[in-house]
Design a protein that fits this description.
- By secondary structure, the chain is of the alpha/beta class.
- The chain has helices at residues 41-51, 66-77, 121-125, 138-147, 164-167, 177-183, 225-238, 243-257, 270-278; strands at 4-8, 12-19, 35-39, 55-63, 85-88, 93-100, 105-110, 129-133, 151-155, 172-176, 190-195, 198-204, 207-212.
- The strands form two sheets. The chain has a nine-stranded mixed sheet with strand order 5-4-1-8-9-10-11-12-13, sandwiched between helices. The chain has a four-stranded mixed sheet with strand order 3-2-6-7.
- A hairpin with a 2-residue loop joins strand 12 (198-204) and strand 13.
- Helix 1 (41-51) crosses helix 7.
- The protein starts with a strand and ends with a helix.
- The model has no long low-confidence stretch (mean pLDDT 95).
- The chain binds alpha-D-ribofuranose (RIB).
- Residues 10, 12, 14, 39-41, 44, 95, 107, 109, 135, 223-224, 226-227, 263 line the site of alpha-D-ribofuranose.
């Protein structure tokens, strides 16, 4: 079954600079040439889900500018339906992404159009899974959660406090180990905790129900790896795969995504992930 996935979230233009090491406070570090890439946690997860075989619609906002057009084209190229992406008078949100040669990164997001992300409740309620992240206003996220009839999946990144109202709506929460610690370890529903190249753990109502070890790769750029995990997991889980199988697929997709520069450039297709398993 091809799951219908609705992603309500951020669309950013990423200005990526590579450098020998990340700057310290008050320090200037020289880098190579700057490069623009499509990004934003929402758009990244939409692209990852579409490449993994989901029927994906994106809900979000861009500015009437060139970076917005670049982001829109990238979504379309990966087969994401962008009919519900709105153009607003604010500029497209922009992320300054600093990538150290070791693969470590630091990101600053200059907020713009993402503040005006909107959605259509009827379309949200028709989706098998609905995916949100924390780069759009909390009020929008809560309304999306109320409209969702399928699996409501929240990627609490970048982390901020989880209101009781939102926590009560979530079916699947996906966080990294740092976000997990900051959220105070939610005890209900399915909670998936990623840890970079270390083991991913899934908890159901506070009990460990599955674990998966991401395959080892020579990572060039880990920006977007977490988003690839989320998009791939949601497609697998919404199409009826078990939690352990969904974790394995998402771990492989996420590892493969780190082999190219740019959040969306390395995101694999379902057949590339299958090939990887059959090697
Ligand atoms: O998760 C990676 C993303 O975070 C980047 O693409 C950047 O836009 C920031 O939102």
């Amino acid at each position: 079954m091809t799951p219908r996935i609705a992603v309500v979230g951020s669309i950013n233009a990423d200005l990526v600079v590579q450098m020998p090491r990340l700057p310290g406070r008050g320090e200037t570090v020289s880098s190579g040439e700057p490069a623009w890439f499509p990004g934003g946690k929402g758009a990244n997860q939409a692209v990852a889900a579409a490449r993994m075989g989901g029927n994906v619609s994106m809900f979000g906002a861009i500015g009437a500018d060139e970076p917005g057009q670049m982001c829109l084209s990238a979504l379309k190229q990966s087969g994401v339906n962008v009919d519900a992406v709105v153009k607003v008078s604010s500029p497209t949100s922009t992320a300054l992404v600093m990538v150290e040669h070791s693969g470590e990164n630091q990101i600053v997001v200059a907020d713009g159009a993402n503040q005006y992300a909107s959605f259509d409740a009827a379309q949200i309620s028709a989706a098998d899974a609905v995916l949100v992240q924390f780069e759009i206003p909390e009020s929008v996220i809560v309304e999306v959660g109320k409209a969702a009839k399928g699996i409501f999946c929240v990627n609490a990144a970048p982390v901020r406090e989880l209101s009781d109202e939102l926590a009560g709506l979530i079916d699947v929460l996906i966080v990294n180990e740092h976000e997990f610690a900051q959220l105070g370890e939610p005890k209900s529903g399915l909670v998936i905790v990623t840890a970079g190249s270390k083991e991913v753990v899934a908890y159901q109502n506070g009990e460990v129900v599955a674990k998966s070890q991401p395959p080892k790769v020579e990572a060039l750029d880990t920006v977007g790896a977490g988003d690839t995990f989320v998009g791939a997991f949601v497609v697998a889980y919404a199409s009826g795969k078990t939690i352990p199988d969904s974790l394995d697929l998402a771990c492989a997709a996420s590892a493969l995504s780190t082999l190219k520069l740019g959040a969306q450039s390395g995101m694999p297709t379902a057949s590339e992930v299958n090939e990887f398993f059959n090697k």
